[in-house]
Amino acid sequence: MTPKDNKSETKQTSARAAAAAAPASSMTVCPECGKETDKTVRNVCPECFGKKLNLFDLPEVLHARVCQRCGAHYYKSKWEDMGTPDEVAMLTAEEHLAIPDGIENITVGMHPVARSPYIYDVLVDVEGDVDGVTYYKNGKVEVRIKREACEMCSRRAGGYFEGIIQIRANNRTPTKEEITECLKLVEESMMAQLKKGDKLAFVTDTMTFKDGADVYIGSSKAGKHVCKHIIEVLGGTVAESYTLAGMKDGKDIYRTTFAMKLPEYKKGDVVYFEDKVIEIKNCGKRVTGINLMNSSNFFIDGEHFKNTKLLGNTADAQEAVLVAIEEHGIQILDPVTFETVTIQKPMGFNALPGSEIKVFKTEYGIFAL
């Protein structure tokens, strides 16, 4: 072989080696458009896949149901407190937004635009990845808001009630002030239960009588809290009874009657108990007051406050002239006989002789208040 032939052979060998060492081309041909591409998505180029990809589905028009009284929104088959109309429009669009399987790293943006108080355009932007390629699509949906009454407001307007709170007093007639206070406590407790999510925590009707009041309530559960609240503040007891009111979904529906009894004694009552004359300050689970015989504080559990005798109320106290003040007693003119008598001096007594003071006359003596 000549030197010329040897050089030619060497060049060919080097070319073949270089070709063998070079990496294979990563370019492929899209079977749909015929273009070469270095990236495929589901076996086609990203452009061809993007043309047939529907990144999301959303109806052109949607309807939202909003309660015209309480503002609740009918969402996912139940009435919910959802806030502003803007939020209702977005939640309605979100509920019906459909994104196909296989989309990763999804980002959704929504922006409501009010055309009127009852019609909103919700602008929708969706971005997601398929096989590492990011796709984007935007659109809009019209949300029409329909005003109606939710289930709870319909019940309230229709006089619905699950329970009756019968407010009475034990062995006496409650005062007007006590009834007013009880009705105030009913409203306070109902508002608290409503804020906790009990949509039936409302008063349907209130009827007052000489002997007390009947309060019709939408929720028996809330009724239990009402009675507990009254007892904590004013004392008393409650007994529950149940009446069959009908059936719903194959189940018996019962109404609850809460027989609420205020304590036998109220603030200002004067009673005789275990050789003591007690001016009542509070008569609940715990009875508190003043022992008028020695001006000491009195307290006892309500369940042990029995075998008592009502002597009257401090509202019936009489005026008496203070004659003189002694170390442990005071002299007054009996408001009935006008005789000078000495009675127990109350703790902290600071009236001046010649002035008139309040006294309470009983068969156990006269006591200064």
UniProtKB/TrEMBL annotation:
Compositionally biased residues, Basic and acidic residues: 1-10
Q: Which GO terms describe its molecular function?
A: ribosomal large subunit binding
- Tell me the segments the record calls region Disordered: 1-20
Q: Which InterPro entries match?
A: Nmd3 (IPR039768), Nmd3_N (IPR007064)
Recorded GO cellular component terms are:
cytoplasm
Domain (Nmd3 N-terminal) spans: 30-262
Query: Under what name is this protein listed?
Result: Nmd3 N-terminal domain-containing protein
